[in-house]
Structures are given as C-alpha cells and as structure tokens.
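Long-time lurker. I teach an intro course on protein structure, and each term I like to show students one example going from raw sequence to a predicted 3D structure in token notation. This year I'd like something fresh instead of my usual example. Would anyone be willing to generate the tokens for the chain below so I can use it in lecture? Attribution to the forum is fine with me.
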Amino acid sequence: MQPKTNFEEYWIVRSFAAILLFGQVWLHLLQGKTYYRKIMQHMVTAGPDSISPVLLVGGFAGMIFTIQTARELVRFGAVDVVGGAFALAFCRELAPILTASIIAGQVGSAFAAEIGTMRVTEQIDALYMLKTDPIDYLVLPRVIACCLMMPLMTVFALVMGILGGVFAAWQFYEVAPEIFLESVRDFLEPSDLFIILLKGFIFGVLVAVIGCSWGLTTNGGAKEVGESATKAVVTSWLSIFIMDFFVSVLLFERIDF
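-- Reply from a regular --
Happy to contribute to a lecture. Here you go:
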C-alpha cells in the first residue's frame, strides 16, 4: 500500500501544474488553433446555464447589504449616501467575487469532473492517438468561454444587485429609488466599470484554468474525480480572493492617488 501524499505537497505540485497550463493556454491561443463549436458550447454552460443562481445571489446579496448599511446610515441622517456605500462595496467587490464563486462552483467543478473522467478512462490518451492536442480541444475553448462570459455574468449580477438594493432601501427605509440611484452614480466612476469587467476576465481565467488543470492531473478512479472537482472549487475560491485583494490594492489605490 502506497503512503498517502502530503496534502501541502500535493496541492503545491498541482498548483504549479496549473501555472504551467496557463502558460500553455496563451501559447496555443497565439498559435490561433481554436475549436469554435466547442467555445460556443462552453459559453452556454458558463452563461445561460448559470444565469439563474447568479441573478438570485446578486439580488438577495444586494438587498442584504443595503439592509445592513442603510440601517446605520439612516440613524445618522445620511440617507443621501446609502447608494454610495452600496456602490463602493457591493459594485466594486461583492458582485465580481460572488459571481466568480458561483461560476467556480457550477462551471469550474464541471470542468474538473469532465476532464478528470476523460483522464481516468484514457480518453485523453485517445486524443493523442488521433493527433489532437488536449489543450486545443479541451482546455482552450473552456478558458475562452469563461473569459467572455464571466464579465457578462458579473454585469448581470451587478444590475440585479442594484435593483435589490433599490427595493430594500425603498421598502424598509423609505429611501426613494431616485435618491439611491443618484448616490450610486455619484460614487461609482466610469473607471470602476472597467475594473469590474477586468476582474471578471481575470476570475474567468482562474476558474477555467484551475478546473481544467485539476482534471488533467487526476489519477485513479471515480473517487479521485470527485476529489479533484471539490479541490478545484476550493482552490478557485482561494485564488479569487487572493487575486481580488491584489487587483483592488493596485488599481483602486492608484486611482485614489
């Protein structure tokens, strides 16, 4: 019986493999060989098939955040800045993170499970026999699909969150929708929208690359496929929060100064 691999060492090795896969993806992208039908298929998976949880979470998160912040601001007579506080926190940070987390749980895990199953059943070896590069056929379409759909899903979550915030502020604290939206417009700058879309793009890369990498490095059987899917989601979440921290510090601090 082989000794169980140390978790930290196992995670570091597979994370390094994900970094190498990221480099291979961009190299293959520059070579221009893509399967457009596969891209469209995965865009449906990362977009329309995931829209319901994204909208639900965005709407309820917007209402919850507004209820918690408006209660304190109204107490101090700062009704006019309820939407501004919402814009600074929810629009800049929560909407991209929540959307990426949902896509990681639904799409990233599916990528890891699908490719992991192909790995343990030797279907990837069959692709090599057919002179088809698995990166071109399996990984690149998924990465492109997530890069295109994640920013769009983030915008949908943002709009739904704003609508939820407007409803909660009006229903529970009698803050007029026009006051809320005016405050959002005053605090949210055009450059913020670009940064939100940039975060969506970066998170899309992370989710797709990590999911595919964990699938490609799966060894064993059905149990290992399930473990790869779970660990891909957890690793994606960690990567999303870490990357969001650095992006926020680098971009928002630079803008403020």
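Some talking points for your students: The chain has a mean pLDDT of 88. The two ends are 59 Å apart (CA to CA).
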